[in-house]
Write a structure and sequence with these properties.
With 452 residues, the protein is α/β, with parallel strands linked by helices. The radius of gyration is 30 Å and the shape is elongated.
Length: 452
């Protein structure tokens, strides 16, 4: 049976103290909404519906940027979770399959957990709820189970009896049910409760009243972490980073100071990579096996090949492709550029909108002058080329294979293969002028001090 995912993302998130919709606040470089959408991918959902409200245009933009096939529906009034899910009724009217209800501010639900819920559905349960054993149950809704382990009801803490409040098996809010069963049950709900809202959780007792079987699947409490404030957001970030670091080391990555390394939600790192302290990985970064990322480097939107060394204090920006056994050293920045196999950009250089051939050497202080104020232009540097220190390469320009540039040159024309390009003013030495000039300046300074 096919699956659909409905993600509730309509809340304003007042406690965030922000104009940005709550679900768009980022964990590990991506909006929480995107983490939830990723989770839904684990059940091969053929439909993804995002229920938006506050900041709907921004939510829609983020959702469609990640998944252009997603559908956005609006909840114009905040009347409860049952009402929010019901906004997807018309969109799913022609859908025949199971529907998962997820939350845009609960970013850590694992795909494997949803698969376990699906297995419980396939075994005969009409409604499956995800629960967790809470260390402090507090205001969580309680999952009330029967002797045979089936789920009898979900009771909100506000409506629970004293006995029910002793239960520590709590509701995460994540539910799986067939589309027709889900919306038939929602149609029977009402707002006759302490909050005056339409609870999605009421569908369990309604299903039981109709003779349907309900079940609960348990997951670790950490997986159900919700984010409602900036404090929660920082806790979620710390939890993600801790898990990501542990997973990286388990997969053969060396982190010499794990607590100082920060990953993004989509960072990919191969085995035998060494990552030194205070390194930050932005989104869309891949590091192949055997590379070394030295301390205080920042990488995003880039690809680093096997055996390459990056840093310390290097910045790789989107579009940087670092070849096998190449080097990008201290205080170097690479953007939208290919650094070929074995090439070296060792220090104090900017390489942007460029192609550097295999085994080329880029001297200290080299800059590709790629921007004319309106357009970006490309620099091509050939294989085994040697670029002298402090060379300005004014794009568009090409330096050929086995060619060289003299230190301090401003290169505005192509340099052919094997040629030497020089582009600097002729030096002129003025005899004794340095001493005379310095004497004059010191005298002027002394006079100024005397007058004051």
């Amino acid at each position: 049976m096919t699956n659909a995912v409905v993600i509730l993302a309509a809340g304003k998130g007042t406690r965030m103290q922000s104009d940005l919709p709550k679900v768009l606040h980022k964990v590990a470089g991506a909006p929480m909404l995107i983490h939830t959408m990723q989770s839904g991918e684990g059940v091969d959902a053929v439909r993804t519906i995002v229920v938006a409200g506050h900041g709907a245009e921004l939510v829609e933009k983020a959702a469609l940027a990640y998944n252009p096939d997603a559908t956005i529906v609006l909840q114009t009034e905040q009347l409860g979770t049952g009402h929010a899910v019901d906004q997807a009724r018309d969109t799913l009217a022609d859908f025949d399959g199971d529907v998962f209800i997820l939350y845009g501010d609960t970013p850590f639900i694992k795909s494997e957990t949803l698969v376990a819920m699906k297995a419980k559905r396939d075994s005969g349960a009409s409604v499956v709820v995800l629960g967790f054993k809470a260390r402090e149950a507090g205001k969580y809704g309680r999952l009330i189970t029967a002797i045979d382990g089936s789920l009898d009801a979900i009771v909100e803490a506000k409506d629970a009896t004293a006995e029910q409040l002793t239960v520590d098996f709590c509701n995460s809010g994540v539910i799986c049910a067939p589309r027709d069963v889900l919306f038939d049950l929602i149609a029977k709900t009402n707002n006759n409760n302490a909050s005056g809202e339409i609870y999605l959780t009421d569908i369990v007792s309604l299903a039981r009243a109709d003779g349907l079987t309900c079940a609960a699947v348990e997951c670790p409490e950490e997986e159900t972490m919700g984010v409602n404030s900036r404090v929660d957001l920082s806790i979620a970030e710390a939890a993600f980073q801790s898990n990501a670091r542990h997973e990286a080391m388990e997969n053969g990555v060396t982190l010499s100071a794990p607590e100082t390394v920060y990953f993004s939600y989509d960072t990919h790192i191969g085995r035998d990579v060494i990552i030194e302290p205070n390194t930050v990985f932005g989104p869309a970064t891949t590091i192949e096996s055997g590379a070394t990322i030295r301390a205080f480097s920042h990488l995003e939107g880039c690809h680093v090949s096997s055996g390459a060394i990056v840093g310390p204090y290097a910045r790789l920006r989107p579009g940087a492709e670092i070849g096998t056994n190449s080097k990008v050293g201290n205080f170097c920045e690479v953007k939208a550029a290919i650094v070929g196999d074995g090439a070296k950009v060792n220090h104090l250089s900017y390489i942007g909108d460029a192609e550097i051939g295999a085994n080329a050497n880029i001297g200290a202080g080299t800059i590709t002058c790629n921007y004319d104020g309106v357009f970006k232009h490309q620099t091509i540097i050939g294989e085994r080329a040697f670029i002298g220190s402090n060379t300005m390469l004014v794009a568009p320009v090409r330096v050929g294979d086995d060619a060289m540039t003299g230190s301090g040159s401003v290169i505005t024309q192509d340099v052919s293969d094997t040629d030497l390009g020089l582009g600097r003013a002729k030096q002129a030495n003025k005899a004794g002028l340095a001493l005379r000039l310095m004497t004059k300046l010191k005298a002027a300074k002394a006079a100024k001090i005397k007058d004051s």
